[in-house]
Amino acid sequence: MLDKLPLKSIVEKKRTAIKLHLGGGTGFTTVHPFFVRKLVEKVKAAGARGVFVTDTPWAVFSAHERGYSSETIGCPLVAATGSADKYFYTKPIKPPFKALKEVELAGEIVDAEALLDVSHVKGHGACGFGGASKNLSMGCVSGRTRGVIHSLEGGLDWNRRKCTHCGKCVRNCPNKAMSFNQKRELNIFFHNCKLCQHCSLICPHKAIRILGGAYRDFQHGMALATAKVLEGFEKKHRLFINFLTNITVYCDCWGMSGPAIVPDIGILAGQDICAIEQASLDMIRTEDLIPGTLPKGWKLRGHGHLFARIHSKDPLVVLEFLEKLKQGSRKYKVTEVM
Ligand code: SF4
Ligand code: SF4
């Protein structure tokens, strides 16, 4: 596949960043170092003016525990925002979107001239799925910006004045997504929340409201950050590679691996992020769900994409925003390489 891509025109004489999600903890379903090394060799052979693999500092620090080191992958492993998470360039978001007024872009990414966005595609509790866009938006920014984007997660509104702290909502949440903190404020962990409405229906004082579509704000923030990352690279110097292997329910940032929920599909590559993400999602089909691979007690809900039925968040939303931000087109044609 790499031989069929215009790798030379993408990386030749360019300082090339390979953005990878290196995972954490005992996770072993990220992109295998073997594939990373093959890619690095090809990029070098294509004449890149230096190539490095990069991710957030905390992922880089522990990457050797999961088999990623300069010896195994064949090039330096660099913390995208520096080892202290202090190397970034601040770019404004115009107009601001809620709390997202600016993005602190990783210095090593901004300094690069060609970008290879290499992603493991899997489910994600807050946005349905993680792929090329999530790899950039959450992995090419400072920890502070990542926190601001996470703060956009939503879907429920809790009214403190109406709440009597009876605890019924917490006890009846089937997904253990709710808790009260020491200030007696209701915390909702949106990764676990399936927007099932049990809490809202059981609350005797109608203190919890479901906000239809509010979970989309997180995807909106992700799309805005992705666009900011991509702004720094001419389209001809971008490449997106999505691994549709070991497709798990949860994101790699959980620091663990679960079973694959569908059979391995393959690897997709292309220069349009929207097309790659759309094709990836189209190939992950509900009918291919392997029985018994969902976490205990979980079941598919509603309609739509498999990830929407697992996490109750439509994974296509981020692509709609990316298309609106003129980052590409969701139309695609697949050329199979055997
Ligand atoms: S909507 Fe459902 S999953 Fe979400 S917090 Fe309420 S009860 Fe829990
Ligand atoms: S069920 Fe309603 S009143 Fe009871 S703790 Fe939850 S939000 Fe508060």
Characterize the structure shown:
- With 338 residues, this protein is α/β, with parallel strands linked by helices.
- The protein folds into two domains: 2-150 and 215-324, LarA, N-terminal domain (Rossmann fold); 156-210, Alpha-Beta Plaits (2-Layer Sandwich), CATH 3.30.70.20.
- It has 13 helices and 14 strands.
- The protein has helices at residues 7-11, 33-45, 57-62, 70-73, 107-111, 132-137, 143-150, 168-172, 198-202, 216-231, 273-283, 306-311, 317-324, and strands spanning 16-20, 51-55, 77-79, 88-97, 100-106, 114-120, 122-124, 128-130, 156-158, 178-180, 186-188, 208-210, 238-244, 266-270.
- The chain is globular and about 65 Å long.
- The mean pLDDT is 95.
- The site of one iron/sulfur cluster (SF4) has 11 residues, from helix 8.
